[in-house]
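Deviations from the work plan: none for this task. Representative record:
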Amino acid sequence: MELVQETYDCIDEIEALLGESLGLQTCGSITIASSEASLKEVEALEEAANRFGIPNERIGRERTAQLLPWIDTEAVDVSLYMPTDAFIDSALLCSGYAKAAARLGVELRPNCKVASLMTEGDRICGVELTNGTRLTAPVVVNAAGAWANLLMRPLHVGLPFTPVRSHFWITAIDRERFPANHPFTVIPDARAFTRSDVGALIIGLRESHCQPFDPSTLTNKLEDFDFRKEAEWTVLDECAPLLKRYLHDIDDLPIAHYMAGPSCYVPDAKFIIGPVRAWKGLFTVTGCCGGGVAAGGGMGRLAAELIMGETPFVDPALFAPERFGEVDPFSEAFQQRCADARSNKKGG
Ligand SMILES: Cc1cc2nc3c(=O)[nH]c(=O)nc-3n(C[C@H](O)[C@H](O)[C@H](O)COP(=O)(O)OP(=O)(O)OC[C@H]3O[C@@H](n4cnc5c(N)ncnc54)[C@H](O)[C@@H]3O)c2cc1C
């Protein structure tokens, strides 16, 4: 929550600095419990929200139905409404960070591919680009997302994550039932989350056995990568019965789009942020576990504080790259451990 809160603060700062809006949509969120197990999660969320001063209230079925015109509330035992939760277009946020950084003096070099990390003895001293350019630097941060381990491999360091397929479905437009900017939902008992999308509903589902990918099979452009798109229907078939209690006509609902991509999962479902001890001057920020948009501001702040030797605003031990000991991210067994972290994820 501290990391996510930092992202909200970054958005405010960037908007003030650039004098333009990043289009944050404050639609609120509703977490729904229909079992003892998920009620415990709601209680934990409530406790954390109260601790961080984030507005939250339990609402009854009638109010839930008003806020979510598509939901069948019979299966809803408890709804926790957090009215200040928001979503944002991740491309706009990303370009906001880049523009703000440039405004503050950072030199950006878009469309450059790093071929390798340069070493000198036991330290990293820069990067070499695929066009042969060598850039020296006292500190290098590997934030290459799903590809981060490909840059680490020649250094014999394994970062403890693997890319795991994440996906969502978008229904056809029905503006009355799925009004723009109605609250997003987290429904742990259906392994689902939903969010509004210009008059349609985005439905995210987590299958019981998530699909990991070997990082060495990733292509440069994800448009070229085979995400085994037959999952569009097999996963929907598996998960629809769970969601049907809340969305009774899921079997007949027209689905307009399917989106799949790699999310970098870590066995304990916590991010990887900090120094890579084997190489002086090398840091990493990765393993976003499906939360890199929401927590990116806090992840960046923590990394900056560690690099600058400042007192970190959260406990960095939680995110230490070496917390699992030596791992081989190219082994199937390790990739499976990471995929299990997504399969077992309950929250949003
Ligand atoms: C379907 C789906 C839904 C998601 N929903 C959410 C959500 O609701 N909320 C949320 O918070 N997160 C969500 N996520 C996760 C979020 O998208 C990721 O956590 C986030 O994008 C990770 O950011 P990153 O910067 O670590 O990696 P990336 O965004 O992958 O960026 C890494 C960058 O490094 C570049 N790169 C790689 N190798 C090199 C190289 N050798 N040289 C130079 N550049 C290189 C890549 O081109 C890429 O641009 C979702 C992900 C998916 C797939």
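The pocket of flavin-adenine dinucleotide is lined by residues 113-114, 143-147, 151, 166-168, 259, 261, 263, 286, 288, 290-294 (CB under 6 Å).
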